[in-house]
Give the backbone structure.
Amino acid sequence: MTQSTILTGITTTGTPHLGNYVGAIRPAIEASKQNNVSPFYFLADYHALIKCNDPEKVHQSSLEIAATWLALGLDTDNATFYRQSDVPEIMELSWMLTCVTAKGLMNRSHAYKAMVAENEEAANNDADKGISMGLFSYPILMAADMLIFNANKVPVGKDQIQHIEMARDIASRFNHIYGEHFTLPEAIIDDKASILSGLDGRKMSKSYNNTIPLFVPEKKLKKLINKIKTNSLEPGEPKDTETCTLFSTYKAFASEKEVAEIRKQYAAGIAWGEMKKVLFEKINAEITPARERYENLLNEPEFIEQKLQEGAVKARAITQPFLVELRKAIGIHRFS
Ligand code: TRP
């Protein structure tokens, strides 16, 4: 079987929550255990600047996200695990790509268009109010992230599909002008990966402020689970599973057999308080060993740094020679 290069990045703003874990990190760690894949996972710290101008926050978030991946058992011998900013070839490629990217392509970016629409709705006389060039051209940086490693499989959420398509467009354009240098990446949307709902029932997302952080202390986890919104049905009244956040969350952590059992209990009218207890026990059992490792890791930033530096060395063994090739292709290289 041919080896596939699977790559994904996490923007270093904020603390990872259960939704990130179930939707992205857990499947990525699983995928990294298959022997026909070569995984590249990275901290997208230059992407963080697009949304966040708080140096403390960007720094702290990088540490927490790195500790999270390591605590959850990412095998850094098999996976290349690195910080985007430790691989400067990515930024250099980003400029090369910027120069072959049509501005019109970026105009079509959902993220940018949404902000313009917001400004227009607010009757701003500046449609571009609050929009930095970072936000506008961020799909190009994302393309560089993928193309520098010739990634062919990129697991992402649905909101990122457009960015993968843009990367394909940009890569094709570069290949057309300068010769075949890049593989066109493909988005992998895992339909089985659960999208968790948050405390209020909407999709769990930092922007809705409805998240359960992955490694909160046990007591806090219990408290947050108790806050998950339910309807007002009394104990003994049959309850619907399909519209219930407690149930869908449980499904993301339990075996099929356990889910079938809980389904019966819903029909039999399980009390919400009881279901919350069951859910807490289930999540807590899965998270506890990693939580302990996470807390230890946070006290050992030198260890985390060493892992990232090892990752950067592995990454640059690929990116440095590739960049020499690319510079040559575009006519920027030494005379002798
Ligand atoms: N933009 C992605 C997000 O917000 C993170 C990201 C940056 C990424 N570079 C990437 C994902 C490259 C996949 C591949 O989720």
